[in-house]
Amino acid sequence: MIHWSILQSPKPFLFTALKPIKELDALRLPIYLIGYMGAGKTTVGRLLADRLGWHFVDLDDAFAEIHGATPADYIRSHGIEEFRRKEKYVVEDLAELPIDKVIYATGGGYPCWEDNMECLSELGTSIYLRWSPTDLVKRILLTDLSERPVLQGRTAEELLTFITPQLEAREAFYSQADYVVEAPLKDIAEEDDKNIAEVLWKLIKSKTR
Fold first, then answer.
1. Cβ-defined contacts of 80-86 (< 8 Å, 24+)
2. Residue 4 dihedral angles phi and psi, to the nearest 5°
3. Where are the alpha helices (H) located in 25-182, listed in sequence order?
4. Dihedral sign, CA of 135, 183, 16, 105?
5. Block means of pLDDT (10 residues each) for the chain, length 209 residues?
C-alpha cells in the first residue's frame, strides 16, 4: 500500500541553458528530476514544489517508507538487482495515485536500469540536471558524505576518478530525458539550485494549464 504521507504537501530565481530534447506542446505530469548524486534533485525539487504549490517526493525516502529500509541498507541485505526491481515498483505504484502535480526526485541510478527511461517517458516528463564531473565533486564535498557510503572517505581526486567514468556510462540514459538543464561552468554558488528551480518553474508555468 502506498501511504499518502509520502507526498510532501506544499508549505503555507540567470541560469544557463535549458535544452528541450523533445518538442512538447505541454508537459505531461508528474515531473521527474534525474541526474547523478549531488546534482541537486532533492533540493531543486523541494524549491520547485514549494514555488508551484505542488507535492514533492524524494523517491529514496519513499522507498524507505514503503520497505522499511533505506536504499543503501536494502542493497546490503538483498543486493542491487532486487533493489532495482523494488525501486521500479515504487515509482510505478506512486504514479497510480490520483494526483499528478508532483515533483519527484529519482535516485541517481534509477534511470539506468532496464527500460526505466521509457517508463518515465510514459508516466510524465523527465528533466536531467546535468553537471560536469568536476562540479559534481565540488558540490558533493559540501554535503554529508556519511549519507553517501559509496563516496565516504574519498579525496577530491578519488571522487573525480570514481565519478567521471560512471557519469560517462550513465549519460546515454540521462540524455534520454525530455529536457536537459545545463549547469553553469563556473564556481559553485549557493544560489545555483535556486536558479535551476526558477528556470524550471518558468518552464512548467509556460507549458501547463
1. 84/109, 84/110, 84/113, 84/114
2. -60, -25
3. 41-52, 59-67, 71-78, 80-95, 116-123, 133-140, 156-174
4. negative
5. 39 45 76 96 96 96 95 90 96 94 96 96 95 93 76 88 96 95 65 89 88
Give the closest residue to 32 by CA, choosing from 140, 173, 164: 173
For residue 134, CA distances in Å to 163, 167, 184 come to 9, 11, 12
Which amino acid does the sequence have at 86? K
Q: What is the edge-to-edge ordering of all strands in the sheet holding 125-130?
A: 17-20, 179-182, 125-130, 31-34, 102-105, 55-58
**How many CB atoms are closer than 10 A to CB 21?**
14
Q: Tell me the C-alpha distance between 24 and 126, whole Å.
A: 12
Are 103 and 45 in contact by the 8 Å Cβ rule? The answer is yes
Q: How many CB atoms lie within 10 A of CB 79?
A: 11
> What cell was used for 86?
523494488
User: Which fold is adopted by the domain 4-207?
Assistant: Rossmann fold (3.40.50)
Long-range contacts of 66-71 (CB under 8 A, 24+ apart): 66/2, 66/3, 66/6, 66/90, 71/107
Closest among 62, 64, 48, 60 to 103, alpha carbons compared: 48
